[in-house]
């Protein structure tokens, strides 16, 4: 289906501002973002920026999605050694925790911030602007990536474990919530500077407790 000129223009403009915001984040961190500087780098004024984004936090959310690229790329390496759905589930989480805990503010904003409940729509918009980032992505990863929010994404990731009989369907919602709460708790502590763990230590602790959750429901990990 042919895309109309107005849609193409919108995607192009959003791309300019997202690229400018990422440049600032890469150079000075997410705290350094300002609408005026982003607009200056993109070659437009702040008023134009607000034609495409609700506020600075909305732009920050879209710019943060750029940092999912390395996570998605690494998934292949992490999951290639998995032989069962449960092993694969934990390999995906290992990869996710590695990236999230090395960039806690970015990942916290994406998955638990103001705009996180609109993640599905934002990701679809994002990949319409940067379709090249979907290249070489494994097909079975896309449903998980495009989930409406992190709860839905994790539930999608659990489905193969349920289908193969590792996880009982009636336990899936409880396991899902416990896993997300564990991850969110650790991520929040890292964002707030309340944990003395390195990213690697935080990852290992999170995975350990996640495995305890599975074990409590009789799932061998």
Automatic annotation (TrEMBL):
InterPro entries: Homeodomain-like_sf (IPR009057), HTH_TetR (IPR001647)
Gene3D superfamilies the record matches: Tetracycline Repressor, domain 2
Domain (HTH tetR-type) ranges: 11-71
DNA-binding region(s) from the entry: 34-53
Keywords: DNA-binding
Entry protein name: TetR/AcrR family transcriptional regulator
């Amino acid at each position: 289906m042919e895309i109309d000129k107005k849609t193409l223009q919108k995607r192009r403009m959003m791309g300019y501002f997202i690229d400018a915001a990422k440049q600032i984040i890469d150079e000075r961190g997410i705290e350094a973002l300002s609408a005026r500087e982003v607009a200056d780098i993109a070659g437009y004024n702040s008023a134009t920026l607000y034609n495409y984004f609700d506020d600075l936090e909305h732009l920050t959310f879209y710019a943060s999605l750029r940092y999912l690229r390395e996570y998605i790329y690494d998934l292949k390496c992490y999951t290639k050694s998995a032989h069962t759905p449960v092993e694969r589930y934990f390999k995906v989480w290992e990869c996710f925790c590695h990236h999230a805990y090395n960039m806690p503010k970015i990942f916290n904003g994406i998955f638990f911030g103001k705009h996180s409940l609109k993640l599905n729509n934002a990701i679809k918009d994002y990949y319409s602007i940067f379709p090249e980032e979907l290249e070489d992505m494994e097909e079975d990863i896309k449903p998980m990536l495009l989930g409406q929010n992190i709860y839905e994404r994790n539930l999608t990731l659990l489905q193969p474990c349920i289908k193969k009989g590792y996880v009982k369907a009636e336990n899936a919602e409880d396991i899902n919530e416990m896993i997300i709460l564990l991850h969110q708790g650790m991520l929040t502590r890292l964002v707030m500077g309340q944990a003395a763990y390195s990213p690697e230590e935080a990852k290992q602790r999170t995975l350990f407790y996640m495995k305890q959750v599975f074990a409590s429901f009789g799932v061998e990990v």
